[in-house]
Design goal:
By secondary structure, the protein is α+β, with helices and mostly antiparallel strands. About 50% of the residues lie in helices and about 10% in strands. The protein contains 6 helices and 4 strands, in the order ααββββαααα. A 4-stranded antiparallel beta sheet has the order 1-2-3-4. The N and C termini lie far apart (about 75 Å).
Amino acid sequence: MSTNWMMEAGFRKSVFDDLTDVGQPIPATEKINIVCPHCSYHTAWRRADDWINCGWCLEFVGNGADRRKAEADRNSQILEIKKAIATTETQGVNLKNKIAVTVKRCSDRDKRLYQSWEFLPNEDHARMLAGIQDLIRPKVDEEYYAAIDF
């Protein structure tokens, strides 16, 4: 059975069906695919910008602002990685093989197939960005400091 087992078993309808029956359907833009921690129903209802209720038990599920902030943080991290990759390409470094190996290792570790590095978890993005920035950072050794005239 799916996560909406109560509806499949015929116990009762969700709030979406109840309001549709009364002639006040909830617009599709207000439906969010998120699992309720209370009843495990997987479709929630955006009551306001910062308030999300379960479509089954009507309990508070999440804060829309938290979700938007997490999405914005992830998008900015992906953008930073893209900029770092572009910078390494201008320096003549080809990262395609390293990125492919990273995606394969993460897929093997998590036992799921990632189509691209952009779909990797946030922790892997942070590790990737740190590795790419290490490649971009100029290599400075003791001979460099010895050659500097003060």
